[in-house]
UniProtKB/TrEMBL annotation:
Pfam families linked to this entry: ABC_tran
Membrane-spanning ranges: none
Upper classification of the organism: Bacteria, Bacillati, Bacillota, Bacilli, Bacillales
InterPro entries attached to this UniProt entry: AAA+_ATPase, ABC_transporter-like_ATP-bd, ABC_transporter-like_CS, ABC_transporter_ATP-binding, P-loop_NTPase
Protein name: ABC-2 type transport system ATP-binding protein
Species: Geomicrobium sediminis
Gene3D superfamilies linked: P-loop containing nucleotide triphosphate hydrolases
Amino acid sequence: MNAIIEFEDVHKQFKEKKALTDVNFSINKGEIFGLVGPTGVGKTTSIKLLTDQLKPSEGTIRVFGESVTGNHTQLLSKMGILSDRSVLYERLSLYDNLRFLASLYDRPVSTIEDILEHVGLASSRKTTYKHLSKGMKQRANLAAALIHAPEILILDEPTASLDPSAKANVHAFLRQLNEQGSTIFLTSHDMNEIESLCHRVAFMIDGTIYLCGEPAQIRSTYAAPTVTVTFADGNVETFNNSYTGMTSLRNAIESRKVQSIHSDEPSLTDIFLDVTGRKFA
Ligand SMILES: Nc1ncnc2c1ncn2[C@@H]1O[C@H](COP(=O)(O)OP(=O)(O)OP(=O)(O)O)[C@@H](O)[C@H]1O
């Protein structure tokens, strides 16, 4: 695997507050990687460290094998960043904002139309940034993050203010960018988003990585060793995934009409709540 983002033994201390403790993970080229966790566990701090807005107290963060600390000018040109700070001017129209950014990166203006179309803001191109709604501002900043066709996209809660339809459009766009070669690192509170979008996911709890892996692999690790069968007469029975359980299941299937069979696999949200005992914010 070709790791292009690496967190190695990263700690971050803010005066008395320990925000990150011994954080280790890596993201491979071409992956969509999700960092999830409740509010205040260290997701934004991780993004700020990765984008050199903060310095780690200990440890190293590398992008393309190079430490980001103090080396961000060159590395940032390869990253598109959506963070909690807007990069757009309040008094400029959306189009003029993006045209300004495109000129900084020497990108053709045709890129702007294409991106505006994909984030669903083509009809708002003349609107002054400050007059956009909260969800539109979020999509405008996503558009700004994409203007220089970055190899890596770093997105802090990219869909937090979006309605379900805008969310689905942004998801489709992110999948498309990923298929075209972008590596995407995103944070979210939304397990469904992570489950449907990400190749791998890390659960962050109180500043540490609790679990990391592919959603299907995590689900199967925590799956209950049972199979639930609904029979045509309405009865529901659970069978153990053991030799005797499976023999009973086979006998039941042969002798009774079955409506549905499903393995009792928990969702990522179930697993998260189970392993942490904490609720999502
Ligand atoms: N500049 C700072 N000074 C002091 N403490 C900070 C600072 N920035 C963050 N923290 C603290 O570090 C912890 C992690 O904050 P962070 O913003 O990374 O959480 P988060 O997981 O992104 O939360 P949310 O999902 O609400 O955005 C919190 O307790 C926060 O109060």
